[in-house]
Amino acid sequence: MQLPDSGFLTDVLLPILDITIVTLLFYKIYTSIARTRAVEAVRLMVLFGALYGAAWLLQLTATVWLFRHAAAAAVIIMAIIYQPELRRAFARTGSRSGSLFGLTAKTTAEQIETVVHAMQVLSSKERGALVVFPRRIPVRGVVDSGTRIQGEISGSLLLTIFDHDTPLHDGAVIINEGKIQSAGCFLPISEQSDIRKSFGSRHRAALGMAEETDAVVLIVSEETGCMSLAYNANLYYDLSPETVRRSLIALLNYQDILPEDMEEAADELD
């Protein structure tokens, strides 16, 4: 077998390989942050890059000078503003092990069904609840803030925690690796200023958790009984039980969908 000549290798194959690797890297990073607020930072950087390129081609000396001297400061400012989203995006980019084995973290569809059914019962009684499903980013600090349980996932246990005025009632339950790991956990409170004023501490805590980690948080409102999901720094309010179930199955399998996608899929099946 005749090997390709070195000129062809260096002039054709290696540049193609180089461009392919860079393209795949940028694509992976973009898809990791596409559904988080960090995508705003990427769009700004692309816009600044395009403006800088246009200024350089048109030889706009003052504009080029401004971009060159402001670039470092702009990058630092955006990194500070979007730090939670960027941290979550890079954590997702760097870890792919969970996507290889069905429902990651060993949480089965049947267990998710059990959780959603228990939340329906609580919703009908207008009893509040917070359930956190960690994904790739560890939440050990949150787990340690509550009471360790390491119990099997069951509706009766969830109802016991949330349906009665126990010391664990106001905290969050952490479900991971097919177990109820901890209950009565404290979650970080969101500092977003544009959140609805009608939202109470549960929704703010769920959103704060979704801002600082890649966890999915299920909320039942004590005031309205509405079920909601928080993930990727966003809160999706007043979802149907079927939408919650479908969304949890997809999200715990690292398919970053929107609840609207699940609702449309359900409508098509009806």
Structure, described:
The chain contains ten helices and seven strands. With 270 residues, it is an alpha+beta fold. It has helices at residues 6-33, 38-57, 61-81, 83-94, 109-124, 140-144, 155-162, 201-212, 241-251, 259-269; strands spanning 129-133, 147-152, 172-176, 179-185, 216-220, 227-231, 234-239. The protein folds into two domains: 6-98, no CATH class; 100-269, DNA integrity scanning protein, DisA, N-terminal domain (YojJ-like (1), CATH 3.40.1700.10. It is 53% helix and 14% strand.
List keywords for this structure.
270 residues; alpha+beta; YojJ-like (1; 2 domains; 7-stranded mixed beta sheet; 10 helices; 7 strands; 53% helix; 14% strand; elongated; disordered C terminus
Condensed summary:
The chain is an alpha+beta fold.
**Looking at this structure, what is the CATH superfamily of the largest domain?**
DNA integrity scanning protein, DisA, N-terminal domain
Q: Count of DSSP helices?
A: 10
Order of helices and strands: HHHHHEHEHEEHEEEHH
**What is the overall pLDDT average?**
77
Which helices and strands occur, and which strands form pairs?
Blueprint: H1 6-33, H2 38-57, H3 61-81, H4 83-94, H5 109-124, E1 129-133, H6 140-144, E2 147-152, H7 155-162, E3 172-176, E4 179-185, H8 201-212, E5 216-220, E6 227-231, E7 234-239, H9 241-251, H10 259-269
Parallel strand pairs: 1-3
Antiparallel strand pairs: 1-5, 2-4, 3-4, 5-6, 6-7
